[in-house]
Design goal:
Length: 188
């Protein structure tokens, strides 16, 4: 058994980005996110949750008490976060199909929330840092599929809790994860 505490990571800082579906993401860690990728701003101190799960179906046979095969039936990947920076991009992301307009120039704005919004797919990016170690996760095709309750109170920031579901795109990947983590070195 080989244990190495230098390979233990934390996400000390980071950002979530959102762009129109089809927007090209940085292909490396040195290239900055371009202007099409909107930084969603401050997130709650819970950070971001990333969930990846698979489902299988057992194939049973008369001659065996245990399954003779398992077939992969689904793959699900989600990102969960709570945006606490209430700006145009986070508000319209939380309320799909909504629009913001100016009522009084530069002072009063109006959010129109549709009664029956349609699906809205976007590209999502997640970047997190641990010292010099950079990680980027890109979901080229995703949608905000779940939203939490907005709580308004004196003792906490107003938060927009959202879950992004990743969808398969024309490529075989559901997402791409880039890292400069030396622990990923295959020769190590």
């Amino acid at each position: 058994m080989s244990l190495d505490a230098d390979n233990v990571r934390a996400a000390l800082n980071g950002a979530i980005y959102m762009a129109p579906k089809g927007t090209t993401a940085p292909a490396d860690l040195a290239t900055p996110w371009d202007a099409a990728w909107i930084d969603l701003g401050y997130m709650s101190d819970d950070g971001v949750s990333m969930d990846y799960s698979t489902d299988t179906e057992d194939v049973n046979a008369w001659q065996s008490l245990s399954p003779v095969r398992r077939i992969l039936t689904s793959v699900d990947m989600t990102l969960g976060f709570t945006a606490i920076e209430l700006k145009a991009r986070t508000i319209t992301a939380f309320f799909p199909g909504s629009t913001i307009s100016e009522v009084v120039a530069d002072t009063v704005y109006r959010l129109d929330i549709p009664a029956a919004p349609g699906p809205q797919e976007f590209a999502f990016g997640l970047e997190w840092l641990d010292g010099a170690i950079i990680n980027r996760l890109v979901i080229p095709r995703g949608e905000i599929t779940d939203r939490g309750t907005i709580t308004l109170g004196r003792s906490a920031a107003v938060g927009l809790e959202m879950t992004v579901s990743a969808y398969a795109s024309s490529a075989p990947e559901i997402a791409t994860w880039l890292s400069n983590d030396p622990a990923w070195d295959l020769a190590a």
